[in-house]
Amino acid sequence: xxxxxxxxxxxxxxxxxxxxxxxxxxxxxxxxxxxxxxxxxxxxxxxxxxxxxxxxxxxxxxxxxxxxxxxxxxxxxxxxxxxxxxxxxxxxxxxxxxxxxxxxxxxxxxxxxxxxxxxxxxxxxxxxxxxxxxxxxxxxxxxxxxxxxxxxxxxxxxxxxxxxxxxxxxxxxxxxxxxxxxxxxxxxxxxxxxxxxxxxxxxxxxxxxxxxxxxxxxxxxxxxxxxxxxxxxxxxxxxxxxxxxxxxxxxxxxxxxxxxxx
Length: 262
Ligand SMILES: Cc1cc2nc3c(=O)[nH]c(=O)nc-3n(C[C@H](O)[C@H](O)[C@H](O)COP(=O)(O)OP(=O)(O)OC[C@H]3O[C@@H](n4cnc5c(N)ncnc54)[C@H](O)[C@@H]3O)c2cc1C
Known about the structure:
alpha/beta; 6 helices; 27% helix; globular; binds flavin-adenine dinucleotide
């Protein structure tokens, strides 16, 4: 069985500009790193393979330089890497991203599990995993902390609302992994050397049987028009005193801001 983990390359720092005209992140400006939640997803994949066997595949959609993110996955023990890279991918929203990742998963044989991080550090919509599950017609378990595989059944512990839940689902399935899950390992020198020899394949949209209209801005129904840091709100003020004094202080301040007439 193949276990596929989706790895997004994100800017190393949040201080990355957006192109004024396109609204796209100027990714080339800063170093790309593996999204933290995806390092947790990679760790869960390794634990599942150690317990139940299988072949580990890392999958990324991104610019050609995103192969570095896949090399890191290969360095911690993944068997193969697939990069979907095509100029027509620029500006893909989560819908278009899910369409492309789903086409890549369908091109891989015997996929039993697709694992993602719960959210990315840049877009942070947490939309890709559920849209991917929808596109593949697979059940999905979100915010997973732990998981085991027995035959064709996945058992997972997930973060519910102020409690943990145990969930079971038939495979193939999609999981999104929480930052509360196992601590991601760091690649060692031997792992890095082995990674250089492991297969890393690059696919274009055409290789996936997709047209440029199905991805990028053309294939997206949302686009980022502007990104900016919200203005810092004025610090609140704590008023003290008797009820009458508090009422008067409030009236004074509202009047000073011309919000009421006294
Ligand atoms: C500032 C900003 C705001 C954005 N706002 C929106 C928006 O509101 N709506 C919208 O549709 N798009 C938005 N986008 C675009 C969106 O970032 C991309 O579509 C992206 O590929 C997926 O969304 P995400 O980053 O929110 O990922 P999430 O859905 O938060 O990521 C969850 C997981 O999906 C997997 N994943 C996501 N992207 C990839 C990838 N390229 N390759 C492999 N695995 C991946 C990873 O495992 C990741 O942990 C925004 C992008 C930016 C930079």
